[in-house]
Design brief:
This protein has 784 residues and is α/β, with parallel strands linked by helices. The protein has four domains: 7-114, Alpha-Beta Plaits; 129-410, DHBP synthase, CATH 3.90.870.50; 411-522 and 766-783, Nucleotidyltransferase, domain 5 (2-Layer Sandwich); 563-760, 2-Layer Sandwich (Nucleotidyltransferase, domain 5), CATH 3.30.420. Helix content is 35%, strand content 20%. The strands form five sheets. Strands 6, 7, 8, 9, 10, 11, 12, 13, 14, 15, 16 and 17 form a twelve-stranded mixed sheet that branches. The chain has a seven-stranded mixed sheet with strand order 29-30-26-25-24-31-32, with helices on both faces. The protein starts with 6 loop residues before the first helix and ends with a helix.
Length: 784
């Protein structure tokens, strides 16, 4: 996609050219410097073809901060050349950020040439994310003799980029393709200006390129047909394979075989968390899910993310998503995927990240052999090394807006542009869904999804990626921004690096950073009323926050309204055992009398946890033993999910709220009573009303919808109350709860009806994966 130049830039270029032409009516020499995503996507060949077609002489080269063009030609030719380089036949993946034109002394050139890349400055170069294989390459794979069924076919418009780059500028010798010497055929295409593979750095074919192999037994490239047949046969017979892809391994099995899906869950120790799926085309997906036009475009985009879709009931084995009403689906994005589907009988594949639970995705064959023993029945690897591991991205479409849930393959390392002073800043995110961010000039470079910083392997991945990003983007941070939670590994890492370098570190409150991420993403200048709902975060008063309404901006936030705090018996344990949170809400609402209520949850606890467990929790709550205060919206969702019998245990993060959303009946428009007293949203009336409905045997789906309608109502009323105090008309929504489509769309619609300008995270995750963006924004203001 090509971004249009601002009108003032076009006017400036026109004036410059006109003046230059008046000074020299015959020939002029100019230098054009272009910044943006212009490396690794065929931009130099595009410039070359434009120059040759117009009779322009000169050179074009990659520099470490973009593309440099030195051109000589007649007046009208130069004018047309500058225009067409920006607007005519531009590569689909190119993003032009800025163009500068300066005059040069007279210099004669022999023709127009692409010259070797140079390192000229300490400026930043945008690196292309990995891209899905294009339709042209898929056609070539059917007819080019040297690339028949070749699983690494690519061109300047598609294929690996970030996953294989080791350093800049983006040239073959600085990627993991350096070890593969081009054959004569590939070399002729590489230097042929009229070829689509002109200067395509990962160019390869069966004679000279990478190859797939099975369990460390090399097989010639021409045996790919046997490898595909072997892989398809295993999958169709109910086996599990570990398949090396673009940014790491997947664990793959049939998505229509309940037994093998259950086997994969048991072997991977992934009890109920949903599996991602891959299907061959849009028509197939529409047999299993309801698609909007926005979702179709997302599925077919060059990024090829996993898209969360509304499932057609009973269309797939329940083992895939364990009670949810959505499925995550992606289309093939590597040639191997297309070849595999041609041979498969099944049309649905489970494509689970290739890792043991909670560890980073595996990227090497050696690691795969040790990691997947006892999980995969065979391992299909290749010898094109993955330098930067990168998971599949996950997105959600809300009405006509895209919301990234996990930002990784296809988007990373594309920067967020800002006018904040972020140069030489680093932010370290949170604990879960970890990412970091680096500031370089007006670029904020967010890392790929790194996982949860709960073990040594993920922390090593964090440190490795941080070092690589610093080198790639030439950033030596002089200010380190971190979460205020003192025990986060990300916080400790920031403080350690700050101490080692002698530069300062500052802490940023977790939920303020969430709201700041919306401000930075949308470039907002005016104050906002921020609604932040998530599971937990360290509050400024030392308690656990997560149901917060703020006012302010990057300079300072004011906590205006929040959920009524409750005690969490067992602390973090309550986030896994939703019944504990439910007992706390019952105790807060009814006192000791809650035990006399004829509720299913009390019976379940007695059977599952023992007859004394309720009394033990009651004692903890009454005496505030290991029961920290929390105002978390996520825990309120846990409570309602447990009370209604939807989910008593979170087997993975967010399971209970997700199941509650899936259970809700959208045709229900009722809500429960609530009130806001002294800036606190009192939940006791909500709990009483929910309990009454449970005792009346009201369907859990009706209760779920009524509860979520209530959340929308008191959230929007809270924002309106803050507006009355402050006059602020901008509302910003962030935090993991706003991945709930019901809550997000409900709040956005109602707030707009009330006259607010509403902003939410779109290209940055609303969950903790977006924290680093907000942190670096707040750090820029505080550090400035």
């Amino acid at each position: 996609m090509l971004l249009s130049m601002q009108q003032e830039n076009i006017l400036f270029l026109s004036i410059f050219i006109s003046k230059t032409l008046m000074q020299n009516a015959e020939y002029i020499n100019i230098r054009i410097h272009i910044e943006g995503l212009v490396q690794g996507i065929g931009f130099r060949p595009h410039v070359y073809r434009n120059a040759v077609s117009k009779g322009i002489s000169g050179t074009v080269e990659n520099s470490d901060n973009g593309v440099d063009i030195h051109a000589r030609g007649t007046e009208i030719k130069i004018k047309n050349f500058i225009h067409d380089v920006q607007y005519t036949g531009v590569p689909p993946a190119a993003i032009i950020q800025s163009v500068s034109v300066t005059s040069e002394a007279k210099c004669l050139y022999t023709g127009f040439k692409i010259v070797k890349s140079s390192l000229q400055s300490n400026s930043i170069t945008r690196i292309s994310p990995d891209m899905a294989v294009c339709d042209d390459c898929l056609e070539d794979m059917k007819k080019q003799p040297e690339r028949l069924n070749y699983p690494f076919i690519n061109c300047t418009n598609c294929g690996p980029r970030f996953s294989i780059i080791r350093d800049i500028p983006y040239d073959r010798e600085k990627t993991t393709m350096a070890e593969f010497t081009m054959c004569n055929t590939c070399r002729s295409e590489f230097i042929n200006i009229n070829d689509r593979r002109f200067h395509a750095q990962p160019i390869a074919c069966t004679r000279c390129g990478p190859a797939y192999f099975i369990n460390n037994m090399p097989i010639k490239n021409t045996d790919i047909d046997n490898i595909i047949r072997y892989s398809a046969g295993l999958i169709d017979s109910g086996r599990i394979i570990a398949l090396m892809g673009m940014g790491g391994y997947h664990l793959v099995c049939s998505g229509m075989d309940p037994d093998v899906i259950e086997t994969l869950r048991r072997r991977k120790r992934r009890e109920s968390k949903p599996f991602a799926l891959m299907m061959p085309d849009i028509d197939t997906i529409q047999r299993f899910a309801i698609l909007s036009e926005t979702e179709k475009k997302l599925l077919s985009s060059v990024q090829r993310p996993v898209v969360l879709l509304k499932q057609i009931p009973d269309s797939l084995p329940e083992q895939i998503n364990s009670g949810l009403d959505t499925i995550g689906v992606m289309l093939p994005y590597m040639p191997f995927h297309y070849l595999l589907f041609k041979e498969l009988q099944t049309e649905v594949l489970v494509m689970s990240s290739g890792n043991r639970s909670s560890e980073p995705i595996v990227i090497s064959h050696e690691k795969a052999v040790s990691q997947f023993e006892g999980i995969a029945d065979t391992i299909i690897s290749h010898n094109r090394r993955i330098h930067n591991r990168v998971d599949d991205s996950v997105v959600l479409a809300s009405e006509k807006t895209v919301h990234i849930i996990r930002r990784s393959r296809g988007w990373v390392p594309d920067p967020i542009l800002t006018d904040l002073p972020v140069d030489r800043l680093a932010s370290f995110g949170g604990e879960l869904k970890s990412t970091f961010a680096l500031g370089r000039k007006n670029h904020i470079i967010l890392s790929q999804h790194l996982g949860d910083l709960e073990n040594m392997e993920t922390m090593e991945f964090f440190q490795e990626s941080y070092s690589r990003f610093k080198r790639l983007f030439k950033v030596e941070p002089e200010l380190f921004v971190h979460d205020k939670h003192p025990d986060y590994l990300s916080t400790r890492s920031a403080l350690k690096i700050a101490a080692e370098t002698g530069y300062p570190a500052i802490g940023v409150q977790h939920h303020e950073a969430h709201i700041a991420s919306v401000i930075v993403e949308h470039g907002l200048k005016e104050p906002v009323i921020g609604v932040c709902y998530d599971g937990s975060g360290y509050g400024s008063d030392g308690t656990i926050w997560g149901g917060e309404i703020f006012s302010g901006g990057l300079e300072e936030f004011q906590r205006e309204i929040h959920l009524q705090p409750i005690k969490l018996p067992g602390g973090d344990t309550a986030s896994k055992h939703t019944w504990r949170t439910a007992l706390s809400y019952l105790y807060q609402t009814y006192g000791d009398g809650f035990k006399s209520l004829p509720l299913e949850i009390l019976e379940w606890i007695g059977k599952s946890e023992g007859p004394e467990r309720v009394n033990q929790i009651q004692f903890m709550l009454k005496n505030s033993i290991n029961s920290p205060l929390s105002s978390s919206m996520g825990r309120l969702f846990d409570c309602i999910s447990a009370l209604t019998g939807v989910c008593f245990e979170n087997r993975y993060e967010g399971e209970a709220p997700m199941l509650l959303e899936a259970a809700a009946k959208p045709e229900e428009h009722g809500h429960y009573p609530w009130n806001i007293t002294e800036n606190i949203i009192d939940t006791r009336e909500i709990i009483r009303a929910v309990v009454q409905d449970i005792l009346k045997k009201v369907h859990p789906g009706v209760i779920a919808a009524g509860f979520m309608n209530t959340v929308v109502q008191f959230s929007c009323e809270s924002v309106s109350l803050v507006k009355e105090r402050t006059g602020i008309k901008n509302a910003a929504l962030s935090g993991g709860v706003f991945q709930n489509r019901y809550i997000l769309e409900g709040c956005e619609s109602e707030l707009r009806r009330r006259g607010f300008h509403v902003y939410s995270n779109s290209l940055i995750p609303a969950n903790d994966g977006g924290l680093a963006l907000g942190q670096i924004g707040m750090g820029a203001v505080a550090g400035g």
